[in-house]
Amino acid sequence: MKRVPCMEAVVAVLESEGVDTVFGIPGAAILPFYAALRTSSIRHITVRHEEGGTHAADGWARVTGNVGVCVGTSGPAGTNMITGLYTALADSIPMICVTGQAATAKLHQEAFQAVDIVEIARPVTKWAVQLKEPAQAPWVFREAFRIARSGRPGPVLIDLPIDVQRGTCLYDRDLDAPLAVEVPEPPPRALRAAMDLLETARRPIILAGGGVIVADACDELRELAEHLQVPVQVTLMGKGAFPEDHPLFAGMAGIQTQTRWGNAAFLASDLVLAVGARFGDRHTGDLDVYRKGRRFVHVDIEPTQIGRVFEPDLGVVGHARPVLAGLLAEARSRAAAREPGRWVRRVAELRGTLARRDDFDDVPIKPPRVFREMNAFFGRDTTFVTAIGLYQIWSGQFQTTYLPRRYLVCGQAGPLGWEIPAALGVKCAHPERQVVVVVGDYSFQFLMEEVAVAAQYRVPFVIVMINNEYLGLIRQAEIPYEMNYAVDLHYGEGGIDHVKAMEAFGCPARRVELPGDLREALSWASAEAERQRLPVLVEVMVEREANAAMGPALDAVKEFEPLPELVTVDWSD
C-alpha cells in the first residue's frame, strides 16, 4: 500500500462515508487536517462559533440520516462544542466532532490551549478518543462512524494532536470501506406477545417517537396502523413520523407540546405501543396519571432505555424498522386488514371538537394565529426548524407536519440559539427544500452571528420570529415567585431592533404587527429568500402576556366538560 499523510487518509474516509459538507473554524492546531481537506470533494462552511458548527452538523445529520461532521482547533474550540455534543447525544443524532490539540509532548506542561477535551467530552458522547498514532488515523475514524450510527445513534469526539496529524500511514482507499452497522432483529416470541396485547386491547394507540424517524421506519408504521386500524400519536421528536392529516392521526399527548384532543385520546386508551420513544418528562408529566388504566409495550433499540422511566408490561429490544415490519407480518398472518371501528371514530370526534382555536384577529397578534398562517402558506415538503421556549411549545401545539425529517427540534437538551445554525445545516444538505426557522427573540440572540455565515455562503431560508419582548418561558415560570430577572426585552430597555440587526448582516427583514399582514409578509420573505439567496426575517410582534398551556400532568380532561366517561367506556366495536 502507498504511504500517505494520515490526514489525507482521514479525509478519504469522510468522503467514502458520504460526508459532503463539514462545518468548522480552522486554527493552528488543526491545520494539517484542513490542508488535506483542500484537495477533497468535501465542502467546508466556516462558521462564527464552534457551538454553531456543532448545531449545523446536527441539522445536516437530522435531514440526511448520515453522520454530521464539525471541526475546531484546540482548547476553547473543543469546549465550545460541548453543548452541541450534549444536544446530539440527548436527541440520538449521529455526529463526529474533530478537534485539534497541542503536541503530545506538551500536553502535561499546560501548553497554550491544551485541555483534556476527551475527558470533558466523555459524559456527552458515545465515544471520546485521542489519536495516538498516525497509523491508527483512518481506522479510528472508521470506528467513529460505526459507533455514531450503531444502536441508539449519537456523537463521537476525536482529538488530534498536531504532531500526530503531521504523520503518515499506509492506506489505500480502494481497499477500504465503511464498517457494517448491526440492525438488531427483535425476538419473534416478543413480537407475538406484543400482537397478543394489541389484539386484546379495546382502545390501543401507537406512540411514535423520534426513533421511528431515525430508523426510517415511517412507512412500516403507517402500514401497521392502517392494517390494524389503530390510532397513532407522536412525541415532539416523532413529529413527521406519521402524517398529521391521516384519519388515524391521534395528536400529541404531553404537558407542554400537546393537543387537547391528543391528551383526551391518550387518557381514553387502554394500551400504548411505544416505538422509539424515551418517555421524556415533558411528555409524561405525572407518571401516576400517565400510566393509570393502560398497559405499555416499549420498543427500543437501546436495551437500557426499557424500564428507565417506568417498567412496561412488555419490553421489546430491536431496530424500529424490523420491529414494525415484523408486527405487520404477524398481524397479516392472523387476520385481514380491519375496518375503522368505534375507537377510531371516537378519536376523530375528539379531533373535530377539541382543537384549539387559532383564528384570532386580536391586536397585538396572538401566537396561534402565526402558526395558522404558516400552516396555510407553506407546503407539505417545507422543513421547519425550532428550538426551545414558548415558541417551541406553540409550535408543537399548532404546527402541522406531514413528512419525516421535516420538523427538527432540539428536544431533551433544549439549547437556545440552536435553530439558526441547524437551519444552515439543513439547507446545505437539501438546497432544493424550503426551510423555515421558527425562533423566539431571545433565542435568536444567542447565535445570531451564524446569520452572517448563511449570508456569506448564500444559504437562503425564512426566519419567523415570535417576539413577545420577554424571555417568555422564564417569565411564565417566574410568575408564581412574583419576580422578573431581566426578562423585559422591549426596544430601548435591553431589547434589540432585529430588523436593523438583520440589515447589518446584509439580509432583508420586516416587522409585522397586524394579523392581516402575516400572509403577505410570509410570501414576501419566501420570495426574497430565493431571489437574493439570503436568510430573510419576518419579526412578528405578539401579545406580551401570552402563556403556553402547560400543567403538571396529562390533565386534559379538566380543560373541557363533560368528558368524564372517556376512561371507562369501551369505544371498540
TrEMBL record:
* Residues annotated as domain Thiamine pyrophosphate enzyme TPP-binding: 388-540
Which GO cellular component terms, listed alphabetically, does the Swiss-Prot or TrEMBL entry include? acetolactate synthase complex
Enzyme Commission designation: 4.1.1.47
Record GO terms (molecular function): acetolactate synthase activity; flavin adenine dinucleotide binding; magnesium ion binding; tartronate-semialdehyde synthase activity; thiamine pyrophosphate binding
- Pfam families, alphabetized: TPP_enzyme_C, TPP_enzyme_M, TPP_enzyme_N
Domain named Thiamine pyrophosphate enzyme central is located at 192-327
All residue ranges annotated as the Thiamine pyrophosphate enzyme N-terminal TPP-binding domain in the record: 8-119
Q: Which reaction does it catalyse?
A: 2 pyruvate + H(+) = (2S)-2-acetolactate + CO2
InterPro entries found in the cross-reference section: DHS-like_NAD/FAD-binding_dom (IPR029035), THDP-binding (IPR029061), Thiamin_PyroP_enz_cen_dom (IPR012000), Thiamin_PyroP_enz_TPP-bd_dom (IPR012001), TPP_enz (IPR045229), TPP_enzyme_TPP-bd (IPR011766)
**Biological process terms in GO annotation:** isoleucine biosynthetic process; L-valine biosynthetic process
The alphabetical list of record keywords is:
Lyase, Thiamine pyrophosphate
Q: Which family does this protein fall into?
A: Belongs to the TPP enzyme family.
What PANTHER family does this protein map onto?
GLYOXYLATE CARBOLIGASE (PTHR18968:SF14), THIAMINE PYROPHOSPHATE ENZYMES (PTHR18968)
Q: What is the name of the protein in this document?
A: Tartronate-semialdehyde synthase
Organism field? Nonomuraea muscovyensis
